[in-house]
């Protein structure tokens, strides 16, 4: 599921298509880009729960309903099945694991889309796992901060960044909606930096014009009028979700006075990392890759906007295939050598034009809305590969890596699909309302009603929650052991 959902725990698949044949390219590259083995580009796609395996044996799987992608992979691809999802599996930790090659306990957050920590008084706090790579988390107080890197590694420093091997090789690296290598919030700190984030301050500085833009938008009355809602959303559309980490000497970052590139600061990077620049946000990336225009078009020819019509990053970090593929195609055509990007899941109800909706907010295999959304995926990938081919970006000179996080699968009763034998493609399936989606429970209430325990604790909301007991007692403390023992007996 997406960034705000819990997830199942199973192994994921990684598919790679590419070649080692050397071929010319019509697309300009950063000076000296050297990927080796004749590879001129890397296209790395992170899916959100898009699968090859069927959930209902009668209904073609996600990839079977995206033949433009499946045929592309089968034509010149390799399926890697020895690919392990973190436990617990969820979007942030899964994606960062795939970016770094290590599990979450080695890059700072091992649980899911948020994580807990204790302040000096032993009180638990939680913060989002989605934050820019070099952000810090204040585990102290405002007056006595204890700043710990968000992506803290076993050295106690910021974990090595995944774009560095590419930029050191002279290659520009573009990112679209993929966790933590672009800005994840428009935070500038303030009185509650844990919940609001600090990404804009991290990238541009707390006294920057970009921070001033954020502050000005926040000062607009939050009265839910259409004009004010749209104006308040501009900073997110301008700065979130999109970045280019430039190689040294890249024309895309060029002169910071005109491109608004900023220093790509990685003070803890092994071997040092100085003299590199980056562009953050559509406000500065779009003009660099689209001839000075303030927008990029999706594959349907429409400007990519947020849900309120502001040019820039789509709202909610849930871009459609047409949006993600359209943006990275523009990056590649502008000379960005490496692109990493994310596409939203297909099984949730995203209200695609012309597609049926679901009262449960999500679909079971073979439901009309699910099949309709997958048709949009298929159309987008067909257009994407044709567009890249027209620019001589093909498996002969490009490494395509396609993977999926979490491996959520439908856990409902597929035998309950009606009419019996439905396949979704020819005959739509239906499932009883209320039999899809999540089942949530209040853990503190269950402890109180079933075990008579009212010990205060914080809990990370997910399918295998971490529990943070107030006061941070030792593992062997009676209060800790009692909660652990009673947890095994809860019914819910």
Describe the protein's architecture and organization.
The chain has helices at 67-76, 91-100, 164-168, 193-196, 199-204, 209-218, 226-232, 234-239, 256-259, 282-289, 321-333, 368-390, 443-451, 478-487; strands at 14-17, 41-48, 77-80, 114-118, 124-128, 136-138, 147-149, 173-176, 242-245, 262-263, 277-280, 338-343, 398-405, 457-459, 467-469. With 492 residues, the chain is α+β, with helices and mostly antiparallel strands. The chain has two domains: 14-184 and 240-416, no CATH class; 443-487, no CATH class. The strands form four sheets. It has a nine-stranded mixed sheet with strand order 3-1-13-2-12-8-9-11-10. Strands 4-5 form a two-stranded antiparallel sheet. Strands 6-7 form a two-stranded antiparallel sheet. A hairpin with a 7-residue loop joins strand 14 and strand 15. Helix 11 packs parallel to helix 12 (368-390). The longest helix is centred in the last third of the chain and has 23 residues, at 368-390. The protein is globular. It starts with 13 loop residues before the first strand and ends in a 5-residue tail after the last helix. The relative contact order is 0.18. The model is unreliable at 4-12, 19-29 and 191-195 (pLDDT under 50).
- Shape call: globular
The low-confidence parts are 4-12, 19-29, 191-195
- Backbone CA Rg: 23 Å
The structural class is alpha+beta
Mean pLDDT, rounded to whole units?
90
Strand % is 5-15%
Order of helices and strands: EEHEHEEEEHEHHHHHEHEEHHEHEHEEH
Helical region count? 14
